[in-house]
Amino acid sequence: QVQLVESGGGLVQPGGSLRLSCAASGLAFSSYRMYWVRQAPGKGLEWVSFISKSGRTTWYTNSVKGRFTISRDNAQNTTYLQMNSLKSEDTAVYYCVHLGLGLWGEGTLVTVSS
Description:
Elements: E1 3-7, E2 10-12, E3 18-25, E4 34-39, E5 45-51, E6 58-60, E7 68-73, E8 78-83, E9 92-98, E10 103-104, E11 108-112
């Protein structure tokens, strides 16, 4: 079964950290660029980050640069999003996306609140 499964979301105070994971199955994970996308309550989709097949190239939207780090472990078919110095505006459902296959995970909710 081809799927992406996110985990690691939760409630965290402003300034805190979380690490999201996205486990892939049923696809040649190391052959594809992977993305993280988020959707805040009542807002549209925002592309947060991507990582190349090898992991050598990454991109971040301006609002998370210097705070978030994307990585991947091709041996474990998993991509990660380390989120530090979290702000209330980071509150959103975070999705792992395989753009080439049009495959989205179910998402994991991150809530940043005191």
